[in-house]
Design a protein that fits this description.
Two copies of one chain form a homodimer. In chain A, about 60% of the residues lie in helices and about 15% in strands. In chain A, strands 1-3-2 form a three-stranded antiparallel beta sheet. The first copy, chain A, is an alpha+beta fold. Chain A has one domain (about 1-100): Orthogonal Bundle (Arc Repressor Mutant, subunit A). Chain A has helices spanning about 1-10, 15-25, 30-35, 45-55, 75-80, 85-100, and strands at about 30, 60-65, 70-75. Chains A, B: This is Helix-turn-helix transcriptional regulator. Chains A, B: It comes from Rufibacter sediminis. Chains A, B: InterPro entries: HTH_HxlR, WH-like_DNA-bd_sf, WH_DNA-bd_sf.
């Protein structure tokens, strides 16, 4: 039981998996693009969630020397081990929506 | 992105996946046993989470005609489709703990 709780401690909350799947889908993703991808998330919340994902060694942050400066994120090797779970959660989400809302 | 968010809306929070994995592990599980399995959860929280899982058609609740009465839970067919995700999250949780805490 504890192992699955460990995972959920890291991945829990409304946003983390959606953020990871946005970065995962595009391989590298700018902050502003993630903000656009993840429906309903605020700038402040995205910063906080990305910080936590960095602390948990799931994403790397790089500052691009552009005008204006852009910040880019990519999954770490450890982060990429989540790919299977993200794919399963995506497929399950589609099935669940059909089951519950009949869409 | 929305599909993965749909999943996390249902599974999110600290407790749901741990509750599902307890029921899943034992096939059928009494309320009091789940309370014991899931480290740190309160009676009130467990009732609330189980109610939400029932609404989302993931678990079935049955009242056993025992003295005193016992309430038992099992996964629905739809709930059992989460088995793969729960297994992956369990395995990932073990890897993550090694990576982060070096246990």
């Amino acid at each position: 039981m504890r192992a699955v709780q460990d995972s959920m401690d890291v991945l829990s909350g409304k946003w983390k998996i959606a953020i990871l799947s946005s970065i995962c889908y595009y391989n590298k993703r700018r902050f502003s693009d993630i903000l656009h991808d993840v429906e309903g998330i605020s700038n402040k919340m995205l910063s906080k969630e990305l910080k936590e994902l960095e602390i948990n060694k799931l994403v790397n942050r790089s500052v691009m020397d552009t005008q204006p400066i852009t910040v880019q994120y990519e999954l770490t090797e450890h982060g990429r081990t989540l790919q299977t779970i993200i794919n399963h959660l995506t497929a399950w989400g589609i099935e669940h929506r059909k089951k519950i809302i009949g869409e």
